[in-house]
Amino acid sequence: MTPPPQTLEHRFVGYVPEELEERTLYVSMDYATVVHSCCCGCGGRVVTPLSPTDWKLTFDGRSVTLTPSVNNSGFECESHYFIVDSRVAWASRLLPHQLAATRRRDLQAKDAYYEGDHSDQAPVERSRPKKVWSWLAKLLSR
Fold first, then answer.
1. 128: part of which helix (H) or strand (E)?
2. Smallest Cα–Cα separation from 91: which of 99, 33, 60?
3. For a tag site, which of 22, 39, 114, 142 has the least CB within 10 Å?
4. Between β-strands 9-12 and 24-28, what pairing exists: parallel, antiparallel or unpaired?
């Protein structure tokens, strides 16, 4: 059964709080990460790192869009949804072969990106992933 439509609030924060409020996206630009409680209501902590090969956040001054979709196949709920203009748009669960294809495509995109020449990027952008991954590792170890 698909949960009801919902609108999400966004908060730009330095640090993500330990206790997450439902229907709230916590956006940490310092750590290039968006964290929220799973939109299905299961309480799962969803962490979406922002990077050229992961998720992208668009803020229009009033609402946020997070792309690509959020696929919680690792959670018991297996929820799958898009966040567009601060609203949740539910999608069907991915089948095992779709999930495998998505993971292969993601790995190929990362390989292609990180093997390329990115010397034209600002030093801050080049150093950010290490900071993000160490923070993410701490978050996931809780």
1. helix 123-140
2. 99
3. 142
4. parallel
* Burial grade of 17 (CB within 10 A; 0-12, 13-18, 19 or more): exposed
Location of structure tokens 């709080």: 17
Give residue for tokens 């609203």: 87
pLDDT at 123: 41
Q: Sheet holding 45-49: strands in order across?
A: 9-12, 24-28, 33-37, 45-49
pLDDT beneath 70: ranges in the chain: 1-4, 117-142
Q: What is the pTM of this model?
A: 0.77
Return d(Cα 128, Cα 18) in angstroms, integer.
Answer: 22
Specify which residues 49 forms β-bridges with. 33
